[in-house]
Every structure is written in C-alpha cells, then in structure tokens.
Amino acid sequence: CPEEHRAFITILALTGLRKSEIFRLSWDWCDFEKGRLLIKVAKRGENEMPMSARVREALLSLGPRAEGRVFPGSFRDKSGKERCDGTKLITNKRHAIANALAAAKVDPVGVAYHTFRRTFVTLVEALPGVSYGVVRALARHSASSHDMTERYLYVSEDRLRLALEQLDEQVLGPSNVILFPQVQGARG
Known about the structure:
The protein has 188 residues and is mostly helical. The chain has 8 helices and 5 strands; from the N terminus they run ααβββαββααααα. The strands form 2 sheets. It has a 3-stranded antiparallel sheet with strand order 1-2-3. The chain has a two-stranded antiparallel ribbon with strand order 4-5. 26% of the residues are buried. The model has no long low-confidence stretch (mean pLDDT 76).
C-alpha cells in the first residue's frame, strides 16, 4: 500500500527510530492528544519523544487503532502457522525504501534502515540553534558518564518539538522529497 509505505518512510526519516523501534511501535504508545510517542524498546529503556506535526499526520493517515502494532508483521509461514516476527513486513518496507529512493532519483547503494537514523541525527545537529543536548535527547543516546556537562543539561520538550518542526521543513519542505546528506564512511 503506497500510503502505508509513505507513512513508514516519513516516520522513519523524521523520528530517527531504530529498526527494532519502528517495527515494535504500538498504537497505544502513540499519544495524539499530547503529541508524544512512547518508545519502549530503545537501548535506554522506556522513554518519550515528541511527535512532529508531519509524523502525527503520517500516523493518522494509517487509521490508528486502539491496540496492536502500527506496522504489523503478521504472515503465514510455509506450514501455514501465523507468525508475527515482522520478517515479511521488513522485506516489504525494504522495497518501499528502494522505490522511494528511485522516485527521488537517489542512488540506493548503501541506504538501509540505519541510514535514516544517521541522516536524522545529522540533519537535526545541523539545524541552527539546536544544541548537542537536543540532538542527544532526540537520538535517545545515553549520556556519557565521563561528561559532567551532560549530567546537568536539561532539554525541554518545547526545544525538542521545535527541533522536530525545523527538521520537517528542512527534510521535506514544499517538495516532500527526503534529502540524504553524504556521510563519510557510513554504511547502511
């Protein structure tokens, strides 16, 4: 479904979710009233992330349900047993990514799920006025125990939301085409 693929790529590009996070994203973790995503499978445990207007719109385009995964991966294996490990969905989304890159005339070599995460972090960091703390918080990286500044750094939700709104405009803007910066030594 092209609309589901579009929503998938939008959410992947504008949240920096890890592959494991996007495929485990549950509808009951999406708080549309407060504009937040609850991420329960992140490396740091459970945490919340503000959702930008475009991520909210992409999620709503899928017709949210009260329960279940946003991108369910249920399918029947060769024996006819239903499985939910996401394998078939991952393959379908890989094709969606390849098709989106082809439509945008972007060379797909080396582009994979983690490319979107690296691109997200790189683009957020490049936004004017966005601090390292905002970048770290949106990437959901743990603070270094050796860096005392990070222990005292507080990043408000308003600053996180502003960074995501600026990212929406920079990445998609009026053309709705995702731009990938060249990252030296990066692999998919």
